[in-house]
Design goal:
Helix content: 25-40%
Oligomer: single chain
Number of helices: 6
Radius of gyration: 16 Å
Strand order of the largest sheet: 4-5-1-9
Largest sheet: 4 strands, mixed
Shape: globular
């Protein structure tokens, strides 16, 4: 069982707070009881005394949380075109820069894949790889040594929704479940009311 939840944050809510709120909401929705989180030295969240696993991601006002009965990682990236945000994937953004970033962080086959359409493929591979290293607990330092997400499609799921790219990494049966159910969008007001 793997479920992915998404929410858009009100401007006054810090992304970290919103991500944790969403994760606790998702855990309670899945398990039926309130849960608590602890973090390891690298910042990976774990459910206290539970049999569930959780992963949290945020990107410029949008949060994602994945809950699973096995190790899980989730990443979300905005694909909007805000000219004031240097992280936006705009037409003016240099393809060369994205290819150089791919060469720095990705495996050779992934970099070749990105080179064919950098502004589309870079966020796809980045999201898949980041969700994978969140699952393993390796963090960004594990990006270069992680398996190719192009070769390991059984353990990684990437989806594009409107202005978002989100990825989920877990065991093959968990990925199949996430593909079937997709992501559940939750209004932040519902998350707040659930906490009371």
């Amino acid at each position: 069982m793997t479920r992915i939840f998404l929410t858009k944050l009100p401007p006054e809510i810090p992304e970290h707070t919103g991500g944790v709120d969403l994760a606790l909401f998702a855990l309670r929705k899945v398990s039926g009881v309130a849960q608590s989180l602890v973090y390891d030295a690298r910042g990976k969240p774990y459910v206290v005394g539970g049999r569930l696993f959780v992963s949290i991601s945020n990107s410029r006002g949008v949060c994602a949380a994945a809950v699973s009965d096995r190790l899980v990682g989730v990443d979300i990236e905005r694909r909007d075109t805000d000219p004031e945000d240097p992280r936006s994937f705009l037409p003016e953004r240099s393809d060369g820069l994205l290819v150089r970033l791919a060469a720095r962080w990705f495996r050779e086959d992934e970099t070749r894949y990105v080179m064919k359409a950098p502004r589309i493929r870079f966020p796809e591979i980045w999201t898949a790889k980041e969700s994978y290293v969140k699952m393993t607990g390796d963090g960004l330092s594990g990006m270069t040594s992680s398996p190719s997400v192009l070769a390991d499609t059984r353990n990684v799921y990437v989806r594009f929704d409107d202005d978002l790219v989100f990825g989920c990494a877990c065991s093959p049966s968990g990925v199949e479940n996430a593909q079937k159910t997709g992501a559940e969008f939750v209004e932040y007001a519902e998350i707040r009311s659930f906490r009371k």
